[in-house]
Amino acid sequence: MPAGGRQAAPLRVHGVRTEGGQARASRGRDRIAGRLHGERQLDRQGDADRQVRTQEVAAGGTARAVPEPAVVLLNPRAAGGRAARLAEPLRRWLAQQAPDVPLQIPDAIDAGRASLMDRPSGSRVVLVGGDGTLQRVLPAVLARQLSVGLVPVGSGNDLGRALGLRGVAWPQALSLALRAPAVECDIGELVTDDGCVPFASSLAAGFDAAVAARAHAGPDWLRGVPRYLWATLRELASLRCWRVHVRADGAMVHDGDALFASVLNTPTYGAGMPAVPHARIDDGRLDLLIAGRFGRVGTLAMLPRLLAGSHLGHPRVQATRFAVLRVDTGRAMPLAADGEPVGETRAFSVRVRPGALRVAGPESVAPRRTDRPAAA
Length: 376
Description:
Residues 1-63 and 364-376 have low confidence and may be disordered. The protein is of the alpha+beta class. The chain has ten helices and 16 strands.
């Protein structure tokens, strides 16, 4: 905000409102810090140990300067529109802590994706939103070879959890997203006759994709796991299974009825449900989770086990690691990439792209795995 307390008019570029990075705060550091401290957090999840670790990383000697050209992109529609409340706090934080970093607030996330195509190759974009925000801009991120920082304030935030950002306050997450070194993580790619759709966290197929679609259109006042539980209960009324033939790395792993046949890159999906607790985002593999035929009662009984991560012990539930997957089904199966509905199809493939995404976060300073297998 310029001196005198008047807000500069936003500059529109390619459908995106861009706030000048050199704007000065008209109040002192103490008042700004106090206002930031008082902002209502969109996602209050307790994890004190993680926050302490995050503070240490953000204050580390190698993480104090923004290492490369960066831009912050806020998706105002994330979390049912609640993310828009962060617009002013973000402007104030950037004016004080990173005055050379511009803030973009696109009218629609597709406009934000278009703006990223103009970013310098190899530069950094910080996304303030959720898994769906990253999924929508991921094609541009990959095309421009951008590194990504996350401030997870969406409805799901499963990639943020995998990066160790659970419970981290947004100012700390933003500092890390701008300053922490980036490391490589895997992504998945859905392939159909209509083209390719990349995803970073999960690809739901079947019942859980139908749940994701219902949750996507659900009431704004519901968020997180309660939102997905509400959607699950509503979807039970029209429960159905699909006849599927599934091959993982060329081997048949399922031939029969299935409630869903979904793919995980992160350990969780659906806002923290531990679908495949042993999954990693840096092992060069994806994880297939298949549930066989279940009725309404069986599906309802499975929910507590899914929430507890004990569902993998059920005889009709299996998990398989793979590099290339092929699924054929007799009738169209709904799909959702990172919680975003992407249509229906009778046949699709999924492949891993090892190390295709460069991302920053608390886990970026942890020792890396050295046993990553080569993708098939």
